[in-house]
Amino acid sequence: xxxxxxxxxxxxxxxxxxxxxxxxxxxxxxxxxxxxxxxxxxxxxxxxxxxxxxxxxxxxxxxxxxxxxxxxxxxxxxxxxxxxxxxxxxxxxxxxxxxxxxxxxxxxxxxxxxxxxxxxxxxxxxxxxxxxxxxxxxxxxxxxxxxxxxxxxxxxxxxxxxxxxxxxxxxxxxxxxxxxxxxxxxxxxxxxxxxxxxxxxxxxxxxxxxxxxxxxxxxxxxxxxxxxxxxxxxxxxxxxxxxxxxxxxxxxxxxxxxxxxxxxxxxxxxxxxxxxx
Amino acid sequence: xxxxxxxxxxxxxxxxxxxxxxxxxxxxxxxxxxxxxxxxxxxxxxxxxxxxxxxxxxxxxxxxxxxxxxxxxxxxxxxxxxxxxxxxxxxxxxxxxxxxxxxxxxxxxxxxxxxxxxxxxxxxxxxxxxxxxxxxxxxxxxxxxxxxxxxxxxxxxxxxxxxxxxxxxxxxxxxxxxxxxxxxxxxxxxxxxxxxxxxxxxxxxxxxxxxxxxxxxxxxxxxxxxxxxxxxxxxxxxxxxxxxxxxxxxxx
Lengths: 277, 252
What we know:
The complex is a heterodimer of chains A (277) and B (252).
Chain A: H1 11-20, H2 22-32, H3 35-40, H4 49-57, E1 68-70, H5 76-79, H6 82-103, H7 111-120, H8 125-152, H9 161-183, H10 188-199, H11 226-231, H12 238-269
Helix pairs in contact in A: 6-8, 7-8, 8-9, 9-10, 9-12
Chain B: H1 2-15, E1 17-19, H2 20-45, H3 70-75, H4 81-102, H5 118-141, H6 169-172, H7 178-203, H8 208-211, H9 213-239
């Protein structure tokens, strides 16, 4: 009896099956129909309009979105993605910032050495610090670009005037967040940059001890004016460090967070992302 | 069945709405991944600066504010701190807030257009790109010791000699008496705003009815303040003018 010659697989046929997705479909079928899979997952995701709506509407994280948007709102050319990126970078600074807070004490004697400890002894400490700082700097740039985009598309026009106003406050708070954080490393760069910045408050009209018309306000002196209220003294010292820490980690994030909630809410209440009507 | 599905499709085409899941969520997801990867790579490769410990007895030269404030620090060359550090930022914030209430042009709402709102785009781009961004770039890269201007190829010489040849505007016009100089400077500054406002209101007199006189007054004066900063920079760099208006309380 002549042995049956072994079947030579038809390469072209197999390639065709791979290209058409038939093999992939077979693998998916095998996996999803296996006992392990079917016992783990009760049902699959059926891509129906109802499910698409529910994915957004019944998810606490996604329900910030409307369930449907205009097609043009998907275009990167239109939005530059800058508002979303700014929010993402804010979240990155929150996560990394909380980790940094475990190791950092805002005290004149400790702050700088805690930075050194973070950089050299804490596992991934340097990476956390880098991510926090670069995300903060990037956030300043992306929030400016977001504002520029909103201006160029005229998206501040009715009915979105008030959301633009909130946006201006958010830009200001972004800068203040970055500025208050700038002092915390407590190195030469930090101390003198904040000295230069807060020195401007000396010259506040009426309320700064070197400002115009301060002579008409009773009690304004280097120790008692808007600048000393900000830095807790007449120079940038340990009280300034503590104040900036509290402002940076608690007050400004809370206020900015509250404004962000209103900002995102107003996008939807004002008719969704702007577009040609 | 066919009857119900046909019109539904038509409506979708008409308003051009798409489901957020998956069309928007997938873009956001992709965008977030790309940003996080870029941030991580950037953070692995470049370390955040940490200089020596803070020392109040050792002032670095130059002392620079954080980079995003260097535009304001740079106009300190041309203005006193009460203006550059306090009043100018307040005007910037207030001016930005007022934009939607001052710009009553109904066109260009929600799409890119240059031709329908040339003036608005020019003003904003000038303020943002020229006065804000380019001054920041100058402050970061070109300002050295003593806040003197250095080209990128020049050595940052802390002993650079810069002649102090600036004079006040009234002096340049031959006014020597202190009181006369104060009157002269005041006339120039107030005259600038009065003439600027008057010319604008006259040119746009047909718009008063629609736009409103208060809105026009605020709009033109904010614009005049912005242009005044540019004029002062030109006067200082080109004509060595220090102050335009000197008073016992403030100098402009």
